[in-house]
Structures are given as structure tokens and as C-alpha cells.
Design goal:
Blueprint: H1 5-15, H2 18-23, E1 26-31, E2 34-39, E3 46-48, E4 53-54, H3 56-69, E5 83-90, E6 100-109, E7 113-121, E8 130-137
Antiparallel strand pairs: 1-2, 2-6, 3-4, 5-8, 6-7, 7-8
Length: 154
């Protein structure tokens, strides 16, 4: 078991998101710099059956989740932070039959909004599949997910 409390917090958050469980997403790393999630390649995420290419919606889900959960790397306490806005610029298609990684960081935090940015990549973060920027609304540490965490604690 990983002793890193940020990884544990991110894993707990990820485990509360059913669609991420179905897709098999996993926490690869988490620290004060940001969060990395892995989306394993599977037939569930294929958008083009002839080539095995990954559907853009799977990349969008990965980046929305990665940007959203990256907030646990920056905030001192767990807060539910729903997506306000997400922009993804696709650079090139993902290679078939390979896992995709998402990295995101928080670069500005205000009392009401958190600003994040990140990349989706396969082999090298310097050669991204996509760039993402997202804003997330702060609801405060008292807010919680009904099916997720007791009393807003992660």
C-alpha cells in the first residue's frame, strides 16, 4: 500500500467515481506538483474499430477527472470541486493498444475557483496527445459526495 497521503486521497476520490472504475483508471502519482492518472487501453475506449484508435471522449473523461482530482494535491483539506469549464486541444490521435496518461496541476486557487492545466500522453509528456485547461468551483470543505466520503473527508 502506498504511504503517500496525496496518492491515498486521490485514490479515494477516484474510487467514488463509478465511470472511472468502469474505465479502469488508476492513480500513478500525486505530489504537490500535480497528479498523474492512467487510463488502460481496452476495447471499451475504442472509437474506431478498424484501427483500434481511442475515442476522444475517453481522453476527455481522463483529463476532466485528472484536472478535477489534481485539486487534492493543492488544497489542505478535501473539497468537492465540480467542473465549471474544460477546454481540450487535441494535438494528434492516441496510438492504439497503448495506455494513456493524464497529468494535471493547479496553477491558481481563489476562494471560489481553482484553475488547472494538464496534458494527456502515452510515452512522453513532451509529446502530448492533448492539452487541457479546466476551472473548478470550490464548494468548501463542508460539501461532500453522497456516495463518496463521509462528512466531506477524503
Amino acid at each position: 500500500m502506498n504511504k503517500n497521503p496525496l496518492v491515498q486521497r486521490a485514490e479515494r476520490f477516484l474510487s467514488a467515481l463509478r465511470h472511472c472504475q468502469v474505465l479502469g483508471m488508476q492513480v500513478e502519482a500525486a505530489d504537490k506538483k500535480g497528479l498523474t492518472l492512467r487510463l488502460p487501453y481496452s476495447e471499451k475506449i475504442v472509437g474506431n474499430p478498424e484501427t483500434g484508435g481511442i475515442h476522444g471522449g475517453a481522453i476527455t473523461t481522463l483529463m476532466d477527472t485528472t484536472c478535477g482530482i489534481s485539486t487534492v494535491c493543492f488544497l489542505p483539506d478535501f473539497e468537492v470541486c465540480p467542473t465549471l469549464d474544460l477546454r481540450i486541444d487535441y494535438m494528434h490521435p492516441a496510438d492504439p493498444h497503448k495506455d494513456v496518461y493524464g497529468f494535471a496541476e493547479c496553477y491558481r486557487v481563489t476562494p471560489t475557483v481553482i484553475f488547472t492545466r494538464g496534458v494527456a500522453y502515452q510515452d512522453d509528456p513532451a509529446q502530448p496527445i492533448a492539452h487541457a485547461v479546466g476551472t473548478f468551483m470550490r464548494l468548501g470543505s463542508g460539501a461532500h459526495i453522497k456516495s463518496g466520503f463521509p462528512e466531506g473527508k477524503a
